[in-house]
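re: ur question from yesterday

yeah so i grabbed the chain u mentioned. its 206 aa long if i counted rite. heres the sequnce exactly as i have it in my notes:
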Amino acid sequence: MEITHRWAEECLQFHSSKDQLLFGICQGGLYEDIRRKSAEFISSLKFDGYAIGGIKICRTMQDKMFVVSSTTPFLPKNKVRYAMGVGNPLEIIEMVLHGVDLFDSAYPSILATQNLLLTYKGLISSSQNGSGKDSDLTINNGMSLWELCKLQNENPKEALRIRISHNVSFLNSFMNQIRVSICEGCIEEFAEKVRHVFWGVSKTGF
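ran it thru and got these structure tokens back, copy pasting raw so excuse formatting
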């Protein structure tokens, strides 16, 4: 942690670009006292935003939320809070409820390599040979799931590109829905719908 803090101070000393934002990173593993100490130190420095590191290596959702809940109370409320390595919709919505604003992850690309698509009905496989109840699902570029399955056999690389594009587009749309629900004062209701879908409870989506 001390090394991270030293790097943070050095970064601020050498950072001179006016068109590039600089974020400080809070660390601390799964130790609540160290998380607090790191968050308080990093937030005392004048960064443009503050990142929560170490989430990616957590093995469970419970540990990830512990890291976030042990950090966000000690970060400035008027600066961007960034959860590093988070792209799962369920994790995103829970962390938003804990005051996180920004996310990044290879999650949509990783799912695409596994032939999985993010949808408002949950995760759907694109390798079912165009059959099944979701065969008429429309991908973000207007292509149907059946057409994507066919393309997978004819041009696997292009099919992968389309799956990645679809998943990234879904997350952009998902984040926009979060912003809208916050503005309309219904973020808790929206979060409950997300929980139902991505815990495998709902069959109708949201």
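noticed a couple things. The chain has two domains: 2-14+21-105, 106-206. also The first strand starts at residue 23 and ends at 26.
anyway ttyl
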